[in-house]
Every structure is written in structure tokens, then in C-alpha cells.
Amino acid sequence: MIRVVNLYKSFRGQQVLKGVNLDLATGKITTIVGTSGCGKTVLLKHLNALLLPDRGEIFVDDVDITKLGPKELYAIRGRFGVLFQGAALLDSMAIQDNVAFPLREKTQMTETEIRKKVEDRLAQVGLEGMGYKFPAELSGGMKKRAGLARALIMDPEIVLFDEPTTGLDPVLATGIHQLIARTHEDFGFTGVVVSHTIPQVFDISDNVAILAHGVIEEIKPTKEFQASQNPIVQQFIRGETEGPLQAL
């Protein structure tokens, strides 16, 4: 569904992506791992053109989105849902209104239809009856669930997860991983997860890629990735300080 070809991106003279090549399989969850600051989130933001590359191509169903104008990009982005690292909820709105926001902005649905769909999504993420609460009244895990409900409200084909368990304790992190797996089973979306939470993230991933030195050093089905003899992969999995990742 998504193909990244020779992608480069720099900020203020610092090269972050140095020729990324990546194929993301339709209907599967691919997790991109790597050390903090290696460019995982930068890469993720290119997939729906929130960032545009210095050079390179990004194909969504054979359409190079780096060449599209604003109207065409708007249509492409409508196929994506995004769970941001901090959930990105609007503090002034109740959770039900946060989740409803895309429907009110982008559809002609009636308020009755919107209310029903919001209630369904909140129930699917374990927040049934909680829509009246405001973000400040929710725990970190509940905010992530609300953010996921909003990401799914438009029935996206592709969902991007930016460090979905950041700031959560191990129990809550496991709950979010299980929720991602369950909603993927229910909706069948193509999922892209950026994370450094291992080994837990392996449980929800069909494929795993590691970003290091500005390129994808390895991408394989999860079990093959874990068994890889690539020293970069093994150093990252083991959390060792000595090895080829020192140069990052």
C-alpha cells in the first residue's frame, strides 16, 4: 500500500533521513524501531505528507504523494488515521467532541449519526460512557484510547501510531498494544507503528524494520527480525551500549 523510495530529509543542515527505502504491506502492521532521535517520527510524518522530503518518492497505491497539490493531498490524507504521541486531544472539548471533530469537519452526517458513531468507537476502545469527560480528567492510558477512537472515526485504510505507549507504565503499555491488535483485527487497516518498546511491540507486528544511520538497515517478518544476525538489530534488541549503534 505504501512504498518509500530513496527518501532524504534534513533540518538546518543536519541530515536525518539519508536514502530510506521501505515497503509497507497492505493490511499488515509494520513497526519501525530505532534509537531515540534516529528519525522514526520524521519518517512517519512523511507517509501522509505532513512533512515533504528534500528528495525521494512516497507512493500510496502507486500515486507519488510528493508530487500532489493541496487538494489531492487533502484527499490522500483522508485515507489515514493518526494516533499522535501525546494523543493531541483538544483540552477545551469533551472526549466525545474530540472524537466527533473529524466527522463534523469533513462529513455531512447528522448530529444523531455522529453521536451514534462516536459512542460505538468509544465502546470499541473501552471508553463506553466516558465521552462527557474532558482530557484533564483522564489517565494517560485513557487519553491514548480516546486518541485511538478519534484516529479510527473516519474508518481509515491506514493508521499511523507515533510511539503509542510513551509515558505509560508496563501494564498500561501492554493494554494499548492489545488494543491496537484488537482494533486491527476489527478494522483490517494497514498499520505503521513507531516505537522503541521492545520486546512487547513484537507481539502486535507482522513486520519489523529498524532505522539506523538514516536508512532502513533491516526489515523482516517479526520472528525473522528477532532472529536476524545483523549486529545493529541484535545490539538494539539486547540494549547493549557497545556496537555499531554507538555512532548515532
How does this structure look, described?
This protein has 248 residues and is an alpha/beta fold. Helices cover 35% and strands 25% of the residues. Helix 5 runs parallel beside helix 6. The chain is globular, with a radius of gyration of 18 Å. The relative contact order is 0.18.
Helix-strand blueprint:
Layout: E1 2-11, E2 14-24, E3 29-33, H1 40-47, E4 55-60, E5 63-64, H2 70-77, E6 80-83, H3 95-106, H4 111-124, H5 140-152, E7 158-162, H6 170-187, E8 190-194, E9 207-212, E10 215-221, H7 222-226, H8 231-238
Parallel strand pairs: 3-8, 3-9, 6-7, 7-8
Antiparallel strand pairs: 1-2, 1-4, 4-5, 9-10
Helix pairs in contact: 3-4, 3-5, 4-5, 5-6
Please give a quick description of this structure.
The chain is an alpha/beta fold. It contains eight helices and ten strands.
